Amino acid sequence: MLQSIPQDQYEAARIEGASEWQQFRFITFPSIKMVLGLQALLAFVGSLSVFDIPQVITKGANGTQTFIMSVIQTAFNFNSFGMASAMSVVLLVMIVVLMVVQNLLFKEKKHVR
Question: Residue 76 pLDDT more than 90?
Answer without folding.
Answer: yes
